[in-house]
Amino acid sequence: MPRLNRWVVPATGLFLGLCYLAVGLYRGEPAFGLTGLGVMVAYVVIIAALSRRSEVAQLLSTEGGDERQRLVLLKASAATLNILVVLGVATAFWTLATGHNALFGYVATTALIFLLVFVGTLVYFSRRG
C-alpha cells in the first residue's frame, strides 16, 4: 500500500490539470486550460523532484512516514484551518460593514461552513478521544 500512496498526489495533480484543460476548452478559452494544466504539471514535477531531499515536499506528497511527520501534518492542518476561519469571519464582517458583494458573500458562506465543520470535528474528537 505505501507504494500506491506515493502516486496519489501526482495522479491527483495530473487529473486536476486535465480538468482545468477540459474547462478551458469547454469555455472556449484554451489558454486558460493550458495554463491550468501547466501549473498542475509543474507542481507535480517539482514535488516529485524535491520529495527525496526536502521534508516539506515529502510531506506534501505523502501522508507522513513517522509519528513526528504525522504530528507536523496535523499541526499544519489545524493552523491552516484556524487561519482560514479567521479570514473568513473577517470577510463576513467586511461584507456586513460595506454592503453585499457576491464574491465576499461566497467567501463568508465558505467561512461559515469551515467554522461549523471545525467546531463539529472539535466536538466529535473531544468526545471520542
What is the element layout, followed by pairings?
Blueprint: H1 2-5, H2 8-26, H3 30-50, H4 55-61, H5 67-98, H6 102-128
Protein name: Putative membrane protein DUF2178
Transmembrane segments: 7-26, 32-51, 72-97, 103-125
Pfam families: DUF2178
Protein described:
The chain has helices at 2-5, 8-26, 30-50, 55-61, 67-98, 102-128. It has 129 residues and is an all-alpha fold. The protein folds into two domains: 1-63; 66-129. Helix 2 (8-26) packs antiparallel against helix 3 (30-50). It is flat. The two termini are 27 Å apart. The mean pLDDT is 80.
What is the N-to-C succession of helices and strands?
Answer: HHHHHH
What does the average pLDDT come to? 80
Largest sheet: none
Tell me the count of domains: 2
The count of β-strands is 0
User: Helical region count?
Assistant: 6
Spans of at least 5 consecutive residues whose pLDDT stays below 50 are none
Q: Name the structural class.
A: mainly alpha
Shape annotation = flat
Distance between the termini: 27 Å
Gyration radius over CA = 19 Å
Helix-residue proportion: over 70%
Report the β-strand fraction as a percent range.
under 5%
In short:
The chain has 129 residues and is mostly helical. The protein is 85% helix and 0% strand. The mean pLDDT is 80.
